[in-house]
């Protein structure tokens, strides 16, 4: 009981601080996109923390050992709430120092803060999806390497160390894709023979091939979520790369900047960064490289990155790598080189590759293949979830609802259509 009271008190403290900082940010004038992004992240976190508080309050009268243990882990020093509080205090100090109506943060500094907030948000989202908030293990695994990283790298330099490896944040990309998912959809995916075989057999490659718009990115995100929940061991690594997300701001064609789609070194560095962030034994060896090269303002070469990755996968029992939209790497030579590098990791350790693509490259001919098409059940589930927003006469007519489901499912065919398009573009009432 005391642990739960302590958790609620900690959440309230962080909520108050986040509201205060959000007020400062909203008062700032002419700060551009950085201020807007920061405000959006804090607003999202504030809403998630409110949900966490509500869940915790509901459990105060329950006799749950799992809850008490997790509550203690969340509220402890260097736990999720403590980390979020420190990030907020960092923002608060900066705003107060510059004046509440000025934005003092440099681009690099705010990117560092935003990256930290995004990671904390991912843990919070995960916690709200887990029974009994079994987040303490994830937090423990993530912060386990901090003590001996401090012996190599000063506290103030740890963020620079992580960003030295890569500035990418692919886990945040998969979370944004998952936000488009209708509850209950894509559950069939992990039950297919191809996926079951890939999950059960070491050093295997699963190629999910499908045409544009068939939902490959969603399945990649669903797989990452599944692995993170099922492979909860400190010796198992789960990493991902969303290649098209380097260029586009959404799974749709909405270009906003020429990203590093064909930069193999950066894609590989993104994988290394994820392993370093979650596994202390990996972080230790890479930190030594950082100490060696950072003073000269040098980054790892492509060969240096792949060598570090080989050491990293050898230090773990199993590493899952999910690569989405390989075909978006438009330079064929770069694409082939990326696949060969990934396959070289399989020769050193139990690395299991899942790749989504519209094309099948020569290097992937021997991979287990799964043809991706929009699943009728997924379409119906989505429509059912959206029908509640239609006029009352539709909601009261069960026969009409069934007809709507059948018509839309038939009209969509093999193409995965997201958000409001199913009802706004294909349904006229």
From TrEMBL:
Record key words, sorted: Repeat, Signal
UniProt entry tagged with the keyword Mitochondrion: no
Domain of life of the native organism: Eukaryota
Gene3D superfamilies: P-loop containing nucleotide triphosphate hydrolases
Signal peptide: 1-23
All residue ranges annotated as the Nephrocystin 3-like N-terminal domain in the record: 184-358
Pfam families registered for this protein in UniProt: NPHP3_N (PF24883)
KW Repeat (keyword) present: yes
Residue intervals passing through the bilayer: none
Name of the protein in its database record: Nephrocystin 3-like N-terminal domain-containing protein
Gene source species: Didymella pomorum
Taxonomic path: Eukaryota, Fungi, Dikarya, Ascomycota, Pezizomycotina
């Amino acid at each position: 009981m005391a642990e739960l009271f302590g958790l609620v008190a900690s959440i309230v403290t962080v909520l108050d601080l986040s509201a205060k900082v959000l007020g400062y940010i909203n008062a700032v004038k002419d700060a551009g996109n950085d201020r807007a992004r920061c405000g959006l992240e804090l607003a999202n976190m504030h809403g998630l923390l409110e949900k966490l508080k509500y869940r915790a309050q509901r459990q105060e009268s329950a006799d749950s050992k799992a809850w008490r243990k997790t509550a203690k882990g969340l509220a402890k020093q260097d736990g999720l709430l403590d980390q979020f509080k420190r990030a907020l205090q960092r923002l608060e100090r900066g705003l107060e120092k510059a004046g509440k109506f000025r934005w003092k943060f440099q681009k690099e500094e705010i990117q560092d803060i935003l990256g930290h907030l995004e990671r904390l948000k991912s843990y919070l989202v995960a916690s709200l999806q887990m029974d009994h908030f079994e987040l303490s293990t994830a937090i423990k695994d993530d912060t386990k390497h901090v003590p001996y990283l401090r012996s190599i790298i000063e506290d103030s330099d740890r963020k620079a160390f992580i960003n030295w490896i890569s500035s990418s944040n692919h886990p945040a990309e998969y979370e944004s894709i998952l936000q488009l998912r209708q509850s209950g959809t894509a559950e069939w995916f992990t039950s297919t023979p191809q996926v079951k075989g890939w999950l059960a057999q070491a050093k295997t490659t699963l190629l999910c091939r499908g045409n544009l718009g068939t939902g490959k990115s969603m399945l990649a995100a669903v797989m990452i979520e599944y692995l993170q929940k099922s492979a909860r061991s400190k010796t198992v690594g789960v990493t991902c790369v969303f290649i098209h997300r380097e260029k586009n701001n959404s799974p749709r064609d909405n270009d906003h900047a020429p990203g590093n789609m064909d930069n193999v070194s950066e894609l590989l560095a993104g994988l290394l960064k994820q392993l370093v962030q979650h596994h202390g034994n990996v972080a230790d060896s890479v930190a030594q490289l950082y100490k060696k090269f950072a003073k000269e303002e040098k980054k790892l070469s492509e060969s240096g990155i792949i060598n570090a990755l080989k050491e990293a996968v050898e230090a773990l029992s199993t590493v899952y790598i999910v690569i989405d939209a390989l075909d978006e790497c438009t330079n064929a030579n770069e694409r082939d080189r990326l696949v060969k590098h990934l396959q070289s990791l399989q020769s050193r350790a139990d690395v299991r590759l899942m790749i989504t693509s519209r094309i099948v490259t020569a290097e992937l001919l021997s991979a287990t293949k799964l043809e991706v098409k929009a699943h009728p059940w997924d379409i119906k589930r989505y429509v059912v979830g959206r029908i509640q927003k239609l006029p009352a006469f539709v909601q009261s007519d069960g026969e009409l609802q069934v007809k709507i489901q059948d018509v839309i499912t038939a009209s969509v065919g093999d193409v995965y259509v997201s958000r409001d398009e199913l009802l706004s573009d294909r349904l006229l009432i």
